[in-house]
Amino acid sequence: METTSFCISFFSLLLIIFFLFYYYCYRGQHSIDGKEGAPAPPGRWGWPVVGESLEFLSNGWKGEPEKFIFSRMSKYSSSVFKTYLLGEATVVMCGSDSNKFLFSNENKLVQAWWPSSVDKIFPFSKLQTSSNEEAIKMRKMLPNFLKPEALRQYVGIMDHITGKHFASEWENKDAVHVFPLTKKLTFWLACRIFINVEDPGEVAGLAKHFDVLATGILSVPIDLPGTPFRRAIKASNQLRKELIKIINQRKIDCSRLTKASEDILWHMLNTADDNGTYMNELDIADKILGLLVGGHDTASSACAFIVKYLIDLPHVYHGVYQEQMEIAELKGQGELLNWDDVQKMKYSWCVACEVLRLVPPLQGTFRQALTDFTFNGFSIPKGWKLYWNAHSTHKNPEFFSEPEIFDPSRFEGRGPAPYTFVPFGGGPRMCPGKEYARLEILVFIHHLVKRFRWEKLIADEEIVVNPFPVPANGLPVRLFPHNHRI
């Protein structure tokens, strides 16, 4: 009898807790629906507390992230629907009009948003700023470092590093796992171009901490000993120490560096803000760390999937091979690629863009509403999160006919309509590293196809999205070297 009473009391308590969570985290959201006299977007909140986060994430784990988007676009609205993701009331924005609205209203109606856990891994504590504020500063600085004029000098460096990478990691191998190698290459390129670190041993030392950091960013934010999140915080602190050593040494060396030795760190050390103030070492270390994170996983994912599609489509491989060999045959022995060579890689870039359309490295990002506003007749309350995603246009037959078909010709001539192809975002928040990514992807393609043909070792390898798309088994391939001299 006592056991029965205890069970009843226990389950009653659970029901009360469940109801309170439901009311606070779920029903409470309805109290702010319909501001400005407009209805809330259609949709559902999902389960109390977790909302629809599990379905949102599990679709990515299964390699079909667009399923969450398109099922709700079909059921609720083709342009906007509400849900509850990652503990936040969220409006998912879909289609080219939504992309244009969000990108055009950056820091007016919306601003970029990241979970608060990001600030623990990237603590900008010295200046008491947040990751959002730091991102705004970076976006003002980066165009000067990553505009085409500045990047011209990096083409030869990228070619040199990529050649060394293929010589040490691909050549004389019967088979390789592609994705770990593309990660290694893009990190090596970032270290060389951002901070002038080229020695493989030194790069590997930084990569060791960086891999722990990257894993922790995607983990559950539980700050307890032994958790991936705690390890990521420690790795972040260790990387800062290493970067500050490099920065201090660079300050000593700056007076001896020539124009040809300039890299992004050199520019940061020698560029003052509007008030004539130069950044301190910790500030620069934070920004370099952010650049390494931002420029690493996206490019490595794109390069890996280019390898996959070139295997699957021999006629596309042939077109890329012909273009790249025409360039290679005009180069002298040991002569590096230059800016003009990259501009000739038009078909290769169309192929890369089609890969980015089908498997966008950046699935989407979050914004936060700065004020109450309406969109397409629906009310968006201040403080709500907004999620834009690439799939709602990339795989939508309204914008790309037969969207599952691989067709590089979509990007010839004027290309897709504005705000439909958005692997790098758009408008004022267009990724400032777009041109940098284009260069490293094209240089990678050049070295890949002039050296090898290849075949997959796993016929139907799954794609996992968490949050970047990656081949589930690292994309193992068997290599067949070309016989001609390169």
TrEMBL record:
Recorded topology in the membrane: Single-pass membrane protein
Keyword Oxidoreductase listed: yes
Binding-site positions, heme: 431
Cofactor or coenzyme needed: heme
Keywords in alphabetical order: Heme, Iron, Membrane, Metal-binding, Monooxygenase, Oxidoreductase, Transmembrane, Transmembrane helix
A single MF term (Gene Ontology): oxidoreductase activity, acting on paired donors, with incorporation or reduction of molecular oxygen
GO cellular component, one term: membrane
Alphabetical GO biological process terms: sterol metabolic process
Superkingdom classification of source: Eukaryota
Subcellular location(s) of the protein: Membrane
Record-annotated membrane-spanning stretches: 6-25
Pfam families given in the database record: p450
Nuclease in keyword set: no
SUPFAM superfamilies from the UniProt entry: Cytochrome P450
Main location group: membrane
Alphabetized InterPro entries for the sequence: Cyt_P450, Cyt_P450_CS, Cyt_P450_E_grp-I, Cyt_P450_sf
Family membership noted in the UniProt record: Belongs to the cytochrome P450 family.
Name recorded for this polypeptide: Beta-amyrin 28-oxidase
Gene source species: Daucus carota subsp. sativus (Carrot)
